[in-house]
Amino acid sequence: MSTLFNAISASASALDVQRARMEVAVSNLANAESTRGPDGQPYRRREVVLESAPVNGADRTFNVQPDGVRVAGVLEDQSPFRRRYEPSHPDADADGFVAMPNVDVPEEMVDMLGAARAYQANLTAIGLIRDTIQKALDLGK
Amino acid sequence: MADPFSDAAITAALGRQMTRAVQRQAVAASNLANLDTPGYRTKEVTFAAALEDELGANGIVTTDARHIGAGQASDPSTFGESRDLATRRDGNNVQLDRELLGLTRASGDFSAAQTVLAAKFRLVRYAINEGR
User: Fold this and answer.
1) Distances in Å between the alpha carbon of A11 and those of A17, A70, A128, A130?
2) Quick one: CA dihedral B114, A10, A3, B43, positive or negative?
3) CB pair distance less than 8 Å for A4 and B22
4) Nearest CA in chain A to B109
5) Which stretches of chain B are assigned E, i.e. beta strand?
6) Using CA atoms in the order B117, B118, B123, B127, what is the torsion angle rounded to 10 degrees?
7) Nearest chain B Cα distance for residue A16, angstroms
8) How many CB atoms are located within 10 Å of the residue A115 CB?
9) Interval A63-96: pLDDT, tens
């Protein structure tokens, strides 16, 4: 039984991670035009780095140890800023170019779709495992 | 095994089927959780490993020196990495549909075994209650 609960923990950790991915993508989208951050620089695109991690307190009943997932870190994308010609902008340089955040809107949308799909898949997994647990409990009736 | 159709034998077999279904579900859930983890390789309960597990730690029993034994298992775990799956550019080869299918299939397997086991228990209870 505890293998099933560990499997649910693994799926739940994935829900957590996908939500984090969604939050970061939304923050990137929201700041796609922010030319001034706290450090005076344009906003830098952030990216979630995932790593696989054994589920907390997992035992080895039935010899299977489900792997969960966790956020290893949220890193800033170091690719160069986009440059847009907009001489009237207060942050424009001498040549009239403004450094815009290195956020690519379609890329963020695709990332969000991926996160939503993965979230859905893990939710389905939790539902199926819950059904199995319920079935096992029904044996006692 | 004296009688392959005894209550105990059938119950034990159904129990094994349910255990296997649970293992497959756990592995599929673990694969799904790592759908986007770079470098993660799909895991699965392999048949050879599962068979080895069923045969116990001793492996296949040989009664003659010329018989071929099972050999020593190199890894005691009953799951390995699946091969022949397309790997994405980040080194991950988890396929969403394949894992969901595996999960659903394992769920059905478990359901089937559970239904039969419940029927078996009902019969036993019927006998205990003297047919009432």
Assistant:
1) 10, 11, 11, 12
2) positive
3) yes
4) A132
5) 43-45, 79-81
6) 110
7) 10
8) 23
9) 677 889 999 999 999 999 989 998 998 888 889 9
Contacting B residues, span 28-87, partner chain A, CB-CB under 8 Å: 28-30, 32-38, 40, 43, 45, 53, 76-79
State whether A69 and B25 contact (CB < 8 Å): no
Helix and strand totals (H; E) in chain A: 2, 4
Of A18, A2, A15, the C-alpha closest to A127 is A15
Nearest-CA distance B68 → chain A (Å): 26
Q: What are the distances in angstroms from CA B30 to CA A79, A109, A120, B2, B68?
A: 33, 26, 15, 39, 36
Tally A–B CB contacts below 8 A.
123
ipTM of the complex: 0.81
CA atoms within 13 A on the CB side of A5: 8
At A80, list the tokens.
Answer: 């160069």
CB–CB contact A62 B22 (8 Å)? yes
Residue with tokens 């599962």: B50
Residues in chain B closer than 8 A to A118 (CB atoms)? 32, 35-36, 96
DSSP B67: S
Q: What are the tens digits of pLDDT across the range B74-100? A: 434 456 777 778 888 888 999 999 999
